[in-house]
Amino acid sequence: MRFSWLRSICLGVLGVAVAAPASAQALAVAESHFDRGRADMLAGRYETGCPALAESQRLDPRPGRLFTLAECEAKWGRIATAVARYNDYLAMVDRMSEAERAKQSARQKIALGQRSALAPLVPQLTLSLPPGAPAGTRVQCDGMTLEQPSLGVALPVDPGEHVVTTQAPGSPATETRFTIDRSESKAIVLEVKPPAAAKPPPVKPPAPAPARAPDQGPSGLRVVTYVAGGLGVAGLIVGSVTGWMALDASGVAADNCRDVSPDRARCKPDGLDAGNRAKRLGLVSTIGFGAGVALAGASALVFLLEPSPRRQPAPEVSWELTAGQAGGGVVVRGRW
């Protein structure tokens, strides 16, 4: 039991130690905002001073910060906001003890006097929707949404320019801008645009007729076929010429050689040269014939199997002959 009590104390101390830096940081930031906001207020820069004071009060609410913020709003001319701030400050003072309230006596007196002087000057604005406005129509005044209880009744606003937007479900938003002065009461019946009519589906235009493709020249494969066929024909010609030359050289060798045994022949020098020449020409003739036949056969096969390029059909021409009896002439009509 004793250890459990000790552990609870340690956990509590640890929680305070962990939370303390965050609280100290918030206080430091709030103090920085307050100092900057008060300096801007004293220099007449209310548009930056009042927001800084408001942020300081949000981070670290204190009576002095709230009173200074109310003073800034009053000097800025936002008297409706200033009256609300003075009311918040006076309500905070009423909840204090007598000792704490005594420290705020001077500020409390100023706040009461400022509230009494500014309250009659606060403009009153009444916003209403037109009869027949669709249910669910949204109304926003200066970015703040106004629900149904806020419509049709006078509301305190700051003097100056205001922007009100209305938007019915499924309708475009309508914006209304106006200016209101001190002590002025203004009633505005807002405009609400009806829901936008459904647009008919777009009609697609008819697809344009396909353009006639121009006649195309021979394809790359057909060009290769033509080249291979030409080489094949050249090979056949070379084989034929060299074959004829080999036969001629063989004849010369036969005239200048005689057999001395079944396996040996004795040749004159001219016969020996002719025999060697016949062998070389015979080899060239064989290679030329083989390559020529192969290339010619392959080109012919590819030429027969490849589909021919599509050509545009020629215009149809028809003739109609009509013999007319008037004047004894003959009428000839043509249609393309």
TrEMBL record:
Transmembrane domains' residue ranges: 281-305
Comp. bias intervals (Pro residues): 197-211
Alphabetical keyword list: Membrane, Signal, Transmembrane, Transmembrane helix
Domain of life: Bacteria
Location of the region described as Disordered in the Swiss-Prot/TrEMBL record: 194-217
Signal peptide: 1-19
Name of the protein: PEGA domain-containing protein
Organism: Sorangium atrum
Top-level taxonomy: Bacteria, Pseudomonadati, Myxococcota, Polyangia, Polyangiales
